Amino acid sequence: MTDPVLPGAEPYSAAGDARGALVLHGFTGNPQSMRGLATALADAGLTVELPLLPGHGTSVADMVPTRWEDWSAAAEAAYIELAARCDAVVAVGLSMGGTLSVWLAERHPEIAALVVVNPLIEPPDAETVAFIDSLIEGGEELAPGVGSDIAQEGSVESAYAELPLRAARSLFGAATDVAAGLGSLKCPVLLFSSIQDHVVAPVSGDRLVEGAGGPVERIMLERSFHVATLDYDKEEIEKRTVAFVTDLLPPSGA
Predict the structure, then answer these.
(1) What is the set of active-site residues?
(2) Cα atoms in the Cβ-side hemisphere of radius 13 Å centred on 116
(3) Residue 241 has pLDDT above 70, yes or no
(4) Is residue 197, in this structure, part of any structural domain at all?
(5) Is residue 21 part of a domain?
(6) Which residue segment(s) compose the domain that 173 sits in?
(7) Is residue 4 part of a domain?
(8) Domains: count for the chain
């Protein structure tokens, strides 16, 4: 039995044309951080799915037992369901949602394109991972959260205030595997990277650019922190994402 979904954390769906967009939120976050981007794509006529990933958007206790396998299975199920209704699908993700998007494209080369905002591709350094492992071995299950890294005053991400350590460790291991498979990523990628990011080091973006087997267009965000989809560059991200997707997948008759 999970806790009730937090206000604003509900999943989002929009029926549109035969172009699909799967939109994925980040670690300890929820659809609130990606709703603006999802609705911008829906307003452009796409069929959009923004799922609430397992353990997210309720209480941190619900997230403690979840792992990468749970989030990736949910993302893949959402993709398969969406792809069955659409002629082409793009994946759009923030942070861990970006990791999941790249993972999906490595497994499903038919994905038309990716848009990723500060994705986790390069896991933390060995010293950080060892510190987390020492906390877990010492009996700790939670650490201070990493949500709401936003420069704009008054803008808040409704992420958990605490970070489940074992879940984070699972994510780091998955990121290592995703990075190793970047050569199989052939579809076009639009990458947004915040110059100041206190959650995911910019080296993750570097790793994606260097390792991807297809074209990557990178846009550096000078004003926004990690949750750039709720920050100063929110409208720019939405505008550029819609332009990128509709250039690749123009609406019928265009």
Answers:
(1) 95, 197, 226
(2) 31
(3) yes
(4) yes
(5) yes
(6) 12-248
(7) no
(8) 1
